[in-house]
Amino acid sequence: MKLVTAILQPEKFQDIRQALEEFGIKGMTVSEAQGYGQQGGHVEVYRGKEYQVNLLPKVRLEILTDDSQALDMVDLIIATANTGSAGDGKIWVTTVDEAIRVRTGERGEAAL
């Protein structure tokens, strides 16, 4: 099993979610996050005064999947999230030793 974690632009999330649902993904965990990468933040002007914004809004997406779907899912996220600009995001894949569905006690891939 693999855990695919992606940090993405918030405005791309609905497109990514739709693409993943069409791919066959039935569940995901989504949380709001803040951070920065190579783009390093930006300057905003509020009431004539400039403010440095160092932490930008992001969406953290986590999906637990079987090994056979992980790389295809990553490719789909990349294709949907890519704008060609700094700040498009990061994706990483982690090996998961065990997953357990709390309601039924199912373990392993049966818990997905």
From TrEMBL:
Listed GO biological process terms: regulation of nitrogen utilization
Superkingdom as given in the UniProt entry: Bacteria
UniProt KW keywords: Phosphoprotein
Name of a matching Pfam family: P-II
Gene3D superfamilies reported for this sequence: 3.30.70.120
Residues annotated with O-UMP-tyrosine modification: 51
Keyword Phosphoprotein: yes
Any one GO CC term of the record: cytosol
One example GO MF annotation: enzyme regulator activity
Phosphoprotein keyword on record: yes
Family: Belongs to the P(II) protein family.
Protein's recorded name: Nitrogen regulatory protein P-II 1
